[in-house]
Amino acid sequence: MSDKQVEDYLQNGIYGTPETKPSERKRFLGTIRERVVFALTKGQVMKKKGIKDMEEKIANNKEAHLLINGKISSRYYKNYRDLALKYGLGYTVVNNREANSDLGAVLTYEHAVDCEEIFLQEHKPQSKPEQKDNLVKRFLNFLRREP
What pTM does this model have? Predict the structure, then answer.
């Protein structure tokens, strides 16, 4: 063995094998962004949002793997786990105490798929402009009032 190989062997033994994109792996529950098909935040999982979207993605990606954040109580992620079982998809509950991810469930492959839109798009109800105008008018009238 050359000195370089011995040094690499010692470094790997002491510090572990070097990992690519560690911050990305912490966020995406052990995988990297380019492998992700669909992802839900912890809040979305706990509020049971995106179940239909996740089922559609699982049905269309039978070779994928579901990663579930283990910091979420099992009563919240049970529906997603059941979806994986229903379609014969493998799933893993990831308990990484060192990583603090905002994601609750990630559908991923072992290879790059590079999907552009991986997050659930929640549609926020837009307030009517009339209501805003009405509120502004009421406030201005309040200020103009004589004491």
Answer: 0.73
